[in-house]
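Notes continue from the previous slide.

Worked example: a multi-chain complex. Inputs as given:
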Amino acid sequence: MSTAPNAAASRRIDASRLWDSLLQMASFGATAKGGVRRLALTDVDGAGRAHFRAGCEAAGLSVRVDEIGNMFARRAGRDPGRAPVLFGSHLDSQPTGGKFDGAYGVVAGLEVMRSLNDHALMTEAPLELINWTDEEGSRFGTGMLGSGVWAGAYRLDQALSLTDSQGVSVGAALEAIGWRGSAPARHFPADAYFELHIEQGPILESEGTEIGIVTGAQGQVWFDAIARGREAHAGSTPPAARRDALVCAARVIDLVDRMMRARGEAGRGTVGEVHVLPNSRNTVPGEVRFSVEFRHPDSAEIERLAVQFPREAGFIARDCGVALEVRHLYTVPAQPFDPGCIAVVRQAAAQAGCTAREIVSGAGHDAVYVARHVPTAMAFTPCKDGLSHNEAESITPEEAAAGCAVLFEAVLARANRAL
Amino acid sequence: MSTAPNAAASRRIDASRLWDSLLQMASFGATAKGGVRRLALTDVDGAGRAHFRAGCEAAGLSVRVDEIGNMFARRAGRDPGRAPVLFGSHLDSQPTGGKFDGAYGVVAGLEVMRSLNDHALMTEAPLELINWTDEEGSRFGTGMLGSGVWAGAYRLDQALSLTDSQGVSVGAALEAIGWRGSAPARHFPADAYFELHIEQGPILESEGTEIGIVTGAQGQVWFDAIARGREAHAGSTPPAARRDALVCAARVIDLVDRMMRARGEAGRGTVGEVHVLPNSRNTVPGEVRFSVEFRHPDSAEIERLAVQFPREAGFIARDCGVALEVRHLYTVPAQPFDPGCIAVVRQAAAQAGCTAREIVSGAGHDAVYVARHVPTAMAFTPCKDGLSHNEAESITPEEAAAGCAVLFEAVLARANRAL
């Protein structure tokens, strides 16, 4: 950490209260390995929500819940006519998730509210701290569900009828835990949205930088690929007679890596999942199924990749004598964040005495949907070894405090800006 | 089939009796999909053995069984002092095997004996038709077990103490089905060994050639490889921070293919089995385990591959920033067959009016162990699509008859040769 002691001293949040609150929230669904299992709309999610609501109400906030279970904890502004400044994240977790993915942004938001109270600061604009429903998508199969409905990316009735592996619907689960609210699950005018989140990647930690000023979210294009060759005996099948689906897949995996690297530091290209058939050591593989995804901050580059990858992969397959099926699953355009909000985060980092750099979000976040309607930016903090979606996910109290202080300054500055 | 009608007419075996006998043997362990499940030393193997013994005895052969269950069905020669001419194969099958892998060589051997009877031909040398115990190795984990013990490649006590997944030993299984014999399980002087087998590869079928004159068995070198990189988020991990175990493995898979092709038609190099961890589509793979094997008819080439492959793969891993462990499992030297026996097979094919070509066996066979002590050669026949170790394994009655006719002529010629 490169923070000078005076920087930490100048921060207007309570670092130890924040840390205690983070650990309290982590007790809801705590796992033996130090992680969290707080799947969306389960009883343990309900308990975590109740704990959060109690904290909000104790801080004088008024909590409302919308039809998809999103929670909005409002602090009045001096000018009730001004559109609120929003901030928050999500409290649900991966099945074997960490303590900080999502929860950090919500709990730090509550610490911002408490610190404003401590300093008796009333902002011009109202503030709303949000817990979005089911960001992870682990239970019902669709990520960023609450923010997606709010932003109009999903229809409410469709979202409510999604079911988990037991056949329980989102609507039924909301009812069961008592968190189906009455506020319309629909975007409303807001001045800004800020989301604080752990990076879930290695960049900040490796550079010793405290804050990532997130300029936007990468676009993504996802494919499923199936290479179909011919199963054959490894000993008796000569080179010319082989149609080795795995050799084809291997060359396509190499292609994905080369296409990523050709795009420099902003490029992402990954084959994460591979299934080989029959997967027997003395049989030439007859079929290989594998995933392919590319990400890039520029939507035009994503569009190019969506065309270029299947074409180049097809050339490889033809050379291998293998039939390659490349199924385009979906394209998510890049979502640049709002320059004004990005500037607010940059200024807030400076004010909190934090080292900072610009960064593009590789993962999806509620902010990506919110940004469709509200000027948005995010701030990232480092996490140990870049590890997330893992029970070993870890951040330090100092890292948590730095990010929270930046959120405090950003919210305060935005809510008090001259219109 | 390019056989002229007069060629088939000139053959001295009974093609329809052979085919009926093949289908009868396939009824022991027949599967719904048209294959055979006759795992070594199971009750169904025992029933198949009893059926075979009955056929042998009906043909006037005297059957003895050795301590590892190998069956020897002897037909007297005119000169009882001459070393016998041996021929045979194995009756056990893969778990989802075909009707012909192994059984063809044994049943065709019985047809040779029957045809000699039909023609009232007594050979100079005695003949012994062999059913070797547990060639497949599917149940007890070690292939070519009976011939391996006979040849001294395995010690009898060690072989008897091998256990299956239920903890049943080879010795106990032999006792249970009543096929633990008293003859010493040890090689004895013999004049020659011939083994007739389906090719289990595509070469003969693709060329329309009826007989493969097998000049030897390939050498083999087997490895297990583990690429260890670092698990990372596919969206947030930039190219320079990646240590992608799968990209490394993919390049090594490509290397194996290139090293195979650099050795021409005789080269074999295969990665058949791959396991990716965590195998999640948006995670850069942290670990990939995969098998590597090379085969070549020249032992010196196998020795070179055993050194060259780990070295070249290591260069690739270093470039990928991945730790690659290459474990050498074992090297099997190439086993050239006996030039005299090869010449006998070539001459027999000509006599039976069959098209023929020389071929190297890619798979392991009992003949490879027998060849350590007895002049040996094999004959191959085509199989549909080169498919074997598969319930869909298939040959035609004509193909079966051609191979059997060649075995007849080879055995007769060798057993009557002038010493």
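Summary box: The first helix of chain B runs from residue 5 to 9. Residues 381 and 403 of chain B are 6 Å apart (CA to CA).
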